[in-house]
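Example 4.3 (complexes with small molecules)
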Amino acid sequence: EAQLIDDGKKVFKKCRACHEVGEGAKNGSGPHLNGIVGRTMGSVDGFKYSKVFAAALDDGLVWDDEALASFLEKPKSYMKGTKMAFSGLKKASDQQAVIEYLRTFGE
Ligand code: HEM
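Answer. The structure with protoporphyrin IX containing FE bound is encoded below.
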């Protein structure tokens, strides 16, 4: 568990150019990711999402573990039209590790 979180912290280096987490996290080119596990998709105030994310918010879709893993594996396949310019995390172990790391940051 602790090892998984530590691995996830390393994986998150790939995300940090665009996403902040932790106390005082702000939106950058991507929205802050505090509380992302269990958060409604596209719901950070003040962040201008793409249309596909706005639609997901309207539909009340939530980021559970499964949705996060699918999105992180292939962002542009899971969310067609997303402006997240990231090719994805191929390894399921990297997806799981970064999800466990993100889970440590509450809202
Ligand atoms: C959106 C995670 C890498 C830019 C998101 C969302 C998640 C996420 C969970 C949805 C947020 C929400 O619904 O509020 C990650 C993780 C990454 C990563 C874990 C690394 C493994 C990146 C990178 C960039 C980026 C490298 C910039 C080049 C964005 C943008 C959005 C977004 C712009 C909003 C998408 C839209 O409106 O279509 N990311 N991200 N992300 N991310 Fe990432």
